[in-house]
Amino acid sequence: MLKRLLLIGGNFAPELTGIGKYNGEMIRWLADNGYDCTVITSFPHYPQWKVQAPYQKSRYWFRKEVADESNITVYRCPQYIPAHPSGKKRLLMDFSFGLSVTVKLLQQLLTRKIDIVVVVAPPFHMGLLAILYKKIRGARFLYHIQDLQIEAARDLKMISSPVLMRSLFRMERYILRHADIVSSISDGMMKKVQEKTTQQVSFLPNWVDVTFFHPLENREEIKTEYGFTVADKVILYAGAIGEKQGLEAILQMADSMKNDVRVKFLICGAGPYREQLRLQAASLQLDNVYFRDPEPFDRFNRLLNMADVHLVIQKASAGDLVMPSKLTTILAVGGLALVTANEHTSLHALVKENNIGIVVDADNIEALKEGICRAINKTQEHITRNAREYALNYLAIDKIMSRLDQVIRAST
User: Fold this and answer.
1) In whole angstroms, what separates CA 66 from the centre of its chain?
2) For residue 1, is pLDDT > 70?
3) Which residues pair with 291 in a beta bridge?
4) Which residues is 143 bridged to in the sheet?
5) How confident is the model at residue 161 (pLDDT cuts 50, 70, 90)?
6) Can you tell me the distance from the alpha carbon of 351 to that of 380, in angstroms, rounded to the nearest whole number?
7) pLDDT in tens, 279-323
8) DSSP letter (8 states) at residue 244
9) Can you tell me the distance from the alpha carbon of 118 to that of 23, in angstroms, rounded to the nearest whole number?
10) DSSP 296-329
11) What's the rounded Cα separation, in Å, for the pair 397 and 336?
12) What number is the average pLDDT over the span 245-264?
């Protein structure tokens, strides 16, 4: 008999980056491996911060999608999506999403019995709805934490009210107390979550499809396809362009390396800060910085293989509050990752201990420049080889999802 699973999450396929990507891949794997899956989510909007085609016309009401070839039913819920997100606007966005999800969940309460409810945070407060379903219908509740949303909002100065912060933390502790399974994606995040709850926190790292994302032989030919020369050293940032990334550092690096005609910086992605970043690059007259829209999924492996160096940039204040999802695909293609992370964070330890990238201090332009020079001027084949091996051994989707399957079945 198929186990009935309900996922509640703010992001889902066909989003190609971030939490939506992982939620989509998780549900597809579970549906292929003995689960009847229902998803309550939003309309695709990340990282562009606007609803994407072909969903624009239906974005103001609920939409049901049924995949005939698999056991997946998706309910899309309307919500307010700010074009330029701030702390207050994100609170309004989460509140509007919570209201529409509540309507859809009440329908589920009356129509079918679910065995396990999975909530992927952020948005963290969706856990309250899982608790409601659990108490009424007796389902188990798995709470999976991708980002520590409240701490990130506080440390990035997105929320400044002490009263509001205390209320949010109390709500989070209530959710953790009532979850049957709590999981997160890194050692550092697990430790922070463990400080808030008495139960064990399971390790469920982000994964990658190591068959689809893999090294290619013709990297120099691919480089010319993207308009660069074989001699160019392409420094790539591919991902969301948002506040927590601290991408102004790329422009500072490009400005300081103008005289090295080999070095080209490519920023590929979308987000609320892209236009601001592009205007800054224009004002600095940086002809070594290029912007490109997000790459289609079927070409993303080629883009990653083209780059000589991959930037994984975070502000120091993000610390162990988030784990960059882009790192998994970089490792899978055997890319050379240049990571900004301070000591005593799990990201720093992961890269350093496994020798799968070059790690430098966060918010340190000189250290970042030294890292780029080291990456492009010295052979780093041992690092790229280690990166691919690490992805094969520890990040393959089948291995990680099989472990999740075991955790779920043990709890139900």
Assistant:
1) 25
2) no
3) 267
4) 119, 182
5) confident
6) 14
7) 999 999 999 999 999 898 899 999 999 999 999 988 776 666 566
8) G
9) 10
10) PHHHHHHHHHH-SEEEE---GGGGGGB--THHHH
11) 21
12) 90
Query: Per this entry, what is the length of the chain?
Result: 412
Task: Give pLDDT tens digits for 54-78.
Answer: 999 999 999 999 976 778 999 999 9
Q: Is pLDDT at 405 greater than 70 in this prediction?
A: yes
Check residue 294 and report its DSSP letter.
Answer: P
Is the peptide bond preceding residue 122 cis, with omega within 30 degrees of 0? yes
245: pLDDT strictly greater than 90: no
Q: Is 160 helix (H, G, I), strand (E, B) or coil?
A: coil
| 399-409 b/e (C-beta count within 10 Å ≥ 16 → b) | ebbeebbeebe
| Terminal CA-CA length for the chain | 13
Letter for the amino acid at 74?
V
**Burial (CB count <10 Å: 0-12, 13-18, 19+), residue 196:** middle
- Cis peptide preceding 296, ω within 30 of 0: no
From CA 161, how far away is CA 32, in angstroms rounded?
Answer: 45
Assigned token pair, 184: 């997160």
Which amino acid is residue 85, in one-letter code?
Answer: P
- Count of Cβ atoms closer than 10 Å to residue 105 Cβ: 20
The backbone region for 381, taken as left when phi is positive above 0, alpha when psi lies in -120 to 50, beta otherwise, is alpha
Q: Report the candidate in 298, 324, 321 with the shortest Cα–Cα distance to residue 237.
A: 324
> Is the separation of the CB atoms in 348 and 342 below 8 Å?
yes
d(CA 125, CA 121): 8
Specify whether the backbone of 319 is left (phi greater than 0), alpha (psi in -120 to 50) or beta: left
Question: Which pTM was predicted?
Answer: 0.86
